Amino acid sequence: MAGKLYIVPTPIGNLEDITLRALRILNEVDLILAEDTRNTAFLLKHYNIVKPLQSHHQFNEHRSIENIIERLQGGAVIAVVSDAGTPGISDPGYLLIRECVKAGIPVECLPGPTAFVPALVNSGIPSDRFMFEGFLPHKKGRHTRLQALAAEQRTIILYESPFRLVKTLTQLAEFLGADRYASVSRELTKIYEENARGSLEGLITHFSGKTVKGEIVIVVEGGKKGMSNILPGP
Ligand code: SAM
């Protein structure tokens, strides 16, 4: 009998943000695959859950997938978690899920925390149509992606590190226009949560000249229909 793979979202900061079902599933499975076993051990200890943990991250997932599929085919029920939020969203998970789907193994993703949803909703920017860009590439392909964003009419969501925030806001201003409305959500669900809203130019001023700390989501208003975005020359 084939087992089952559960995708279990975990808190993005506040440990209370985990569902009752997520806790029950973590308590019931045979094995938990974790991006960082120390992080997950901390979460499990907080909820008095004792389960075998196995490391599953972007550097070993190619190698370990075959063995996990065999265990699932042998009837094991396995949960996959990442360090924070929903596995598969800018985190490992996709490759394993794809292989399970190919092998006919049931996959179930529990609804739960993911950073971009509260960032989008907090922003006050239209949330009826949006595109999730995740992290922009650091070098190769970055300009091409920024150019594509300049033509985007839906709300744009980006993940970014605090060290690159000002650089990315500056490039967004360059490609999309300095007066484009945006919102930066920092440290969502944590004590020092901040949601800064304004033009890209205003946000650059707000975050420049200080050490930016914490985790960040950028939400940018989409371009208006018929608006020609100012693209930098070659
Ligand atoms: N799987 C996660 C999810 O479902 O959102 C995303 C993991 S990705 C490796 C980590 C990025 O998510 C961070 O660099 C940041 O952009 C965003 N993020 C995670 N937690 C956050 C938080 N508490 N506040 C703001 N952004 C956060």
What would your notes on this structure say?
With 234 residues, the protein is an alpha/beta fold. It is built from eight helices and ten strands. It has helices at 20-28, 37-46, 61-73, 94-102, 116-123, 142-150, 165-176, 200-207, and strands at 4-7, 31-34, 53-55, 77-81, 107-109, 130-135, 155-160, 181-186, 194-199, 216-220. Helix 6 crosses helix 7 (165-176) and helix 7 packs antiparallel against helix 8. S-adenosylmethionine (SAM) binds next to strand 7 and strand 10.
- CATH superfamily assignment of the largest domain? Tetrapyrrole methylase, N-terminal domain
Query: Would you tell me the structural class of the helices and strands?
Result: alpha/beta
Query: What is the overall shape?
Result: elongated
Mean pLDDT: 94
When the domains are counted, the total is 2
Bound small-molecule species: S-adenosylmethionine
Find the count of extended strands (DSSP E, 2+ residues). Answer: 10
CATH topology of the largest domain: Cobalt-precorrin-4 Transmethylase, domain 1
In N-to-C order, the SSE pattern is EHEHEHEHEHEHEHEEHE
Question: What share of residues are in beta strands?
Answer: 15-25%
Sequence stretches where pLDDT stays below 50 over 5 or more residues: 230-234
Per CATH, the class of the largest domain reads Alpha Beta
SS element count, helices: 8
Distance between the termini: 59 Å
Using only C-alpha atoms, the radius of gyration works out to 20 Å
